[in-house]
UniProtKB/TrEMBL annotation:
GO CC aspect terms: cytoplasm; membrane
Name recorded for this polypeptide: Major facilitator superfamily (MFS) profile domain-containing protein
TM segment ranges: 40-61, 81-110, 122-140, 146-168, 180-198, 210-229, 302-325, 345-363, 370-391, 397-422, 434-453, 459-484
Keyword line: Membrane, Sugar transport, Transmembrane, Transmembrane helix, Transport
Keyword Membrane recorded: yes
PROSITE patterns: MFS (PS50850), SUGAR_TRANSPORT_1 (PS00216), SUGAR_TRANSPORT_2 (PS00217)
Localization terms from the record: Membrane
One of the record's GO molecular function terms: transmembrane transporter activity
Native species: Tripterygium wilfordii
Region annotation (Disordered) ranges: 1-32
NCBIfam families, sorted: SP
Keyword Membrane recorded: yes
Compositional bias ranges of the Low complexity kind: 10-21
Domain Major facilitator superfamily (MFS) profile: 48-488
């Protein structure tokens, strides 16, 4: 098709608002010189993080609240229902229903992410959260309750896909790592809130209904907040470059959105937008992605890095270690350990503190040092736990130290950095689909480990099982050392140009 001489081209848009001296290296802006420091207002940069992070808060809250809700719903005196006599399979469906919904949400995101955009996908996630919570809260019978759990899980899948993308694409590169890591902090904060509210309501008649109902105001706030926030400027520019709208109009909308996101006047923001356009033009983002491209070239490398990280995040034993927390503390003589909820709250507070440390240092130390150091600590703790169950059962202090070391090191490394890296590493035009595959791997591995834990424990014993997790952690350390790049301080476009 012949080009329209009146229509602005990608290259001309990339030069709008720049003097000739500022585009002398436009041929290879990323490989030759890097980017100018982004100017931004801290307040303006934090607000676009806050509402997407509510998606993580609601995910964490569901984990904490469900652990208490299952106790409430099984009680003949306190459940407030006639169908409380549930089998272990039915309780398992209540517990894991949101996880299976999240898997479906991840598959759904693969097809709709680039069509809807990050902002509208998060609005849709908030709607699923709200409907799922309401259906669960007012469920008249067990099948309806499971449907509600599944619908809520679809919201989890969409939110955990779109939230890191939206934050990554709207945050200034200097604090991008901190803001995306803060989303993990919000997940843990939600877990602690779920355990806390659940422990307060577990002795209330029909308390499980109130536990699930408590999440509805947050879902409403998330939906309204995402409606108020601007669209991702990078998504708008991608649409412009792929011919899905008028280039000049979408550029102006992107500048307007960037003004709100940075809290800056139009002139410096327009320069930032034009730099992004020029950078995207030079790394070939004009072509619309095909399914086959997911498994070739740059995206294949990004897929190996991202999916590998979230796979190791799940199969290095985190759910299994936490499963033993109450019994480990009980063996060591801690009175609070008789109450699994109290143990969960204590560990949740430790996770909050360690995640907070990761948030503070991630953009100073970088991603690789935190991953290598944290996973090394996990290796030590897993072998200590295995040794405790095989040889050192008369030294419960070893198990307590190993448990705390594992939780702390996980929250310094795989916890926040896994989600951070998958939001950074995929090229823009493949980011929606690439991230959905990574999230699908994450939830799929979570479901597999949760399902396989009890049979493996019965077959191998706890000691051998923890040794096995330790070996997997060593493999993950090798993977990180040789495969995972450092992305600290780079723009998303620079990561594509230099790391893939």
């Amino acid at each position: 098709m012949a080009s329209d001489p009146e229509r602005p081209t990608l290259s001309s848009l990339g030069k709008v608002g720049k003097s000739s001296g500022e585009v002398t290296e436009a041929e290879e802006p990323l490989l030759n010189g890097g980017h100018n420091s982004e100017s931004y207002s801290v307040l303006a940069a934090i607000l676009p993080f806050l509402f997407p992070a509510f998606g993580g808060l609601l995910y964490g809250y569901d984990i904490g609240a469900t652990s208490c809700a299952t106790i409430s719903v099984e009680s003949a005196e306190l459940s407030g229902i006639s169908w409380y006599n549930l089998s272990s399979v039915e309780i398992g469906l209540i517990t894991s229903g949101s996880l299976y919904g999240a898997l479906i949400g991840s598959v759904l995101a693969f097809n709709i992410a680039d069509f809807l955009g990050r902002r509208r996908e998060l609005m849709l996630a908030a709607l699923f959260y709200l409907v799922g919570a309401l259906v669960t809260t007012f469920a008249p019978n067990f099948p309806v309750m499971v449907i509600g759990r599944f619908v809520y899980g679809v919201g989890i899948g969409l939110a955990m896909h779109a939230a890191p993308m939206y934050i990554a694409e709207t945050a200034p590169s200097e604090i991008r790592g901190q803001l995306i890591s803060l989303k993990e902090f919000f997940i843990v904060l939600g877990m602690v809130a779920g355990y806390g509210i659940g422990s307060l309501l577990v002795d209330v008649v029909a308390g499980w209904r109130y536990m699930y109902g408590a999440s509805t105001p947050l879902a409403v706030i998330m939906g309204i907040g995402m409606w108020w926030l601007p669209a991702s400027p990078r998504w708008l520019l991608l649409c412009a470059m792929q011919g899905k709208g008028n280039l000049q109009d979408l550029r102006e909308i992107a500048i307007s959105c960037m003004c709100r996101l940075r809290g800056q006047a139009t002139a410096p923001v327009s320069i930032q937008v034009d730099e992004i356009v020029t950078e995207l033009s030079n790394i070939g983002e004009e072509k619309e992605a095909t399914f086959g491209e997911m498994f070739r070239g740059k995206c294949l490398k990004a897929l190996v890095i991202g999916a590998g990280l979230v796979l190791f995040q799940q199969i290095t034993g985190q759910p299994s270690v936490l499963y033993y927390a109450a019994s480990i503390f009980q063996t060591a003589g801690f009175s609070a350990a008789s109450d699994a909820t109290r143990v969960s709250i204590l560990l949740g507070l430790l996770k909050l503190i360690m995640t907070g440390i990761a948030v503070i240092v991630v953009d100073r130390l970088g991603r690789r040092p935190l991953l290598l150091g944290g996973v090394s600590g996990m290796v030590v703790s897993l072998f200590l736990l295995g040794s405790y169950y095989l040889f050192l059962d008369n030294l419960p202090v070893v198990a307590v130290v190993a448990l705390l070391l594992y939780v702390g090191c996980y929250q310094l490394s795989f916890g926040p950095i896994g989600w951070l890296m998958i939001s950074e590493i995929f090229p823009l035009r493949l980011r929606g689909r690439g991230l959905s595959i990574a999230v699908l791997v994450n939830f799929g591995a979570n479901a597999l480990v949760t399902f396989a834990f009890s049979p493996l424990k019965a077959l191998l014993g706890a000691g051998i099982l923890f040794y096995g997790f330790g070996v997997i952690a060593v493999l993950s350390l090798i993977f990180i050392f040789f495969i995972v790049p450092e992305t600290k301080g780079l723009t998303l476009e620079e990561i594509e140009a230099k790391c893939l």
